[in-house]
Amino acid sequence: MITRKEQQTAQEHAAEMLKQAGITITEKEAARIEVADFGLGHLEKEGAQALTLVQTDRISVKVLVLFPLQTLPEHWHPPVGTDPGKEETLRVISGRVFFYIEGQNSLKEGFIVEGKEDCYTLRHEIIMQPADQILLAPGEKHWLQAGDQGAVLYSFSTIARDALDQFTDPHIDRITKIMDE
Ligand code: ZN
Q1: 77 C-alpha vs ligand 1 centroid, how far in Å?
Q2: Ligand 1 center from residue 165 Cα (angstroms)
Q3: Closest of 172, 69, 174 to residue 113, by C-alpha
Q4: Residue 107's CATH number
Q5: In the list 12, 34, 40, 167, which could disulfide-bond 172, CB 3.0-4.6 Å?
Q6: 162: exposed, middle or buried (C-beta count within 10 Å: 0-12, 13-18, 19+)?
Q7: Cα-to-centroid distance, 157 and ligand 1 (Å)
């Protein structure tokens, strides 16, 4: 849960980072930047900001903003009906991103969120810079973390059904509750 004020502050911060990254958005779009704390209540540590630019019955385009050292929790996009699940390409626009997938432990630059070893099982680290991109197959588990300057990424994918995403952390609630003070 986050407060309305926290949501607004995060939206403004994210909009500013998008601007710095050379991505122009309207004020209306800035006001609908999704701020996700994944129900964990510590947005700066674990969370993400996302603006959906395209969403049809078949494809989705988003820009993701991660604040400095913010971690997007380990998850995967499961099959839904006859759809094998979201296939996604992430492309870094600005900042450094530490990306984790299945494979040999090579974690070095990034870090596991304190006390949450069980919630971050993937330790194969890929260090991504602007213009680097990665393709994730449907159902492929992943998590990511921004470097100390934060990061902006594009996400190009088949249809996104965020509410159905699965997370390793059992305490996660994908739909963020906003509390009016
Ligand atoms: Zn994902």
Answers
A1: 6
A2: 8
A3: 69
A4: 2.60.120.10
A5: 167
A6: middle
A7: 10
Indicate the SS3 state at residue 14.
helix
> Half-sphere exposure (CA, 13 Å, Cβ side) for 62?
23
CB-based contacts of 18: which residues, under 8 Å, 6+ apart? Answer: 25, 51, 63, 65, 152
Q: What is the pLDDT of residue 181?
A: 75
pLDDT of res. 175: 85
Per-residue pLDDT tens listing for the chain (181 residues): 899 999 999 999 999 999 999 999 999 999 999 999 999 999 999 999 999 999 999 999 999 999 999 999 999 999 988 889 899 999 999 999 999 999 999 999 999 999 999 999 999 999 999 999 999 999 999 999 999 999 999 999 999 888 888 999 999 988 888 998 7
Task: Please name the residue ranges forming H helices in 4-71.
Answer: 4-20, 27-31
Domain count, the chain: 1
119 CA distance to ligand 1 centroid (A)? 15
Give whole-number Cα distances, 76 to 2, 42, 102, 106, 138, in Å.
24, 21, 12, 20, 8
Domain extent, residue 89, equals 2-179
Find, among 55, 39, 43, the residue nearest to 14 by Cα: 43
